[in-house]
Design goal:
2 domains; alpha+beta; OB fold (Dihydrolipoamide Acetyltransferase, E2P); globular; 6-stranded mixed β-sheet; 9 helices
């Protein structure tokens, strides 16, 4: 089971943005996707990562109703989107996903004509008044950093500019859900920064974003939830991804303040190799964490006290969650867990080197 849980309130669970069960897809009889259970929560940015051919694009197209699964079911906000015989309920689900979401493909199509004609296309076919189209096109181009591009020929744009125009075309429709397939692939650094900023801004305004990328730097910077895919399957992550901000940097170390999940809590200061820049994310592999009952006599710069909150069995390993002000997850062998006395409620020390932490 894989659950992509976003920011939700307490109480009864709200319907997921997307929920799939027993999902199987195949091309020409060759299996390409197999997901037993996946729940993607409303709001925030869910990022699918994996190599080319891992199933990211196929999953996005299934979620958008552009492909039918060979087996299994898909729900969009509680409405059936796919699974079994076509029904009235499925028609409602497909209508909802197409009305409330927009998908931007990895190689999006621009029509001949001006940038404004391309950005306003979806509005025109929906019968939006001309004056409103002009205003929404201008606003969308402003969001993607292309003011003044409205009358340029679409075919004369650079690759990065084309990608931003296609994103503007989606934004002009004011969707509640954005599905983005490799939105920063094959674009220049300036366009990549703009696209990432737009995604953060839209998510911050309440838009749910589900996107794919094989660029891990982009994934780390943007994700609220990270889903890793291999050969058509969701695989368990093996990294702690901590949001926060740099507090200070000296000649040896950068101190990063990892934000706590609870509002108002101080979070945790983590020492990392010295780097200059504005970083929002620290990534710490789970296998770099050492658990102990007492402080170790070690040169490691990060030693945090915490309480075990969960122990999850994995093939040959245990994944242990320790609340140190932020929850850190460590991978340990069963024998090491017995030696340390790992158990829910046990107070332990988490130790890791500064060099194990990467900033993005």
């Amino acid at each position: 089971m894989s659950d992509a849980e976003g920011r939700t309130g307490a109480g009864a669970a709200a319907p997921a943005l997307f929920e799939v069960r027993g999902l199987r897809a195949a091309f020409g009889g060759t299996p390409v996707l197999s997901i037993d259970h996946l729940r993607i929560a409303e709001s925030g940015v869910t990022v699918l990562v994996g190599e080319n051919g891992s199933g990211k694009t196929t999953l996005l197209r299934l979620l958008n109703g552009l492909l039918d699964p060979a087996e299994g079911s898909i729900l969009f906000r509680g409405l059936p989107l796919a699974g079994g015989e076509r029904t009235v309920g499925q028609a409602a689900g497909r209508t909802a996903v197409r009305a409330q979401s927009v998908m931007v493909h990895q190689l999006p199509l621009l029509f001949r004509g001006t940038v404004a004609q391309n950005v306003g296309y979806g509005l025109r076919i929906r019968g939006v008044p001309r004056d409103e189209i002009a205003d929404r096109v201008a606003g969308a181009l402003e969001q993607v950093g292309l003011p003044g591009f409205a009358h340029r020929r679409a075919t004369a744009l650079s690759g990065g500019e084309m990608q931003r125009v296609c994103l503007a075309r989606a934004l002009a429709l004011a969707p509640e859900v954005l599905l983005l397939d490799e939105p920063t692939a094959n674009v220049d650094p300036d366009s990549r920064s703009v696209v990432e900023r737009v995604i953060r801004n839209r998510a911050g305004s309440g838009v749910s974003v589900v996107m794919s990328t094989h660029a891990m730097e982009t994934a780390y910077r943007l994700c609220d939830t990270l889903l890793s895919m291999e050969t058509g399957r969701i695989v368990e992550p093996e990294e702690n991804i901590l949001k926060g901000a740099v507090e200070r940097t000296d000649e040896q170390f950068t101190q990063f303040r990892a934000a706590a999940a609870s509002a108002g809590a101080p979070g945790v200061a983590i020492r990392c190799p010295a780097r200059q820049g504005e970083f929002r994310v620290a990534v710490l592999p789970m296998n770099e964490l050492i658990l102990s009952r007492k402080l170790l006599d070690s040169s490691a710069r990060n030693r945090l006290r915490g309480t075990v909150t969960a122990v999850e069995p994995l093939p040959g390993l245990l994944r242990v969650s320790v609340d140190c002000g932020v929850v850190l997850k460590a991978l340990v062998t069963p024998s090491a867990a017995v030696e340390v006395g790992v158990a829910v409620g046990r107070d332990l020390v988490v130790t890791f080197k500064a060099s194990a932490v990467r900033l993005y």
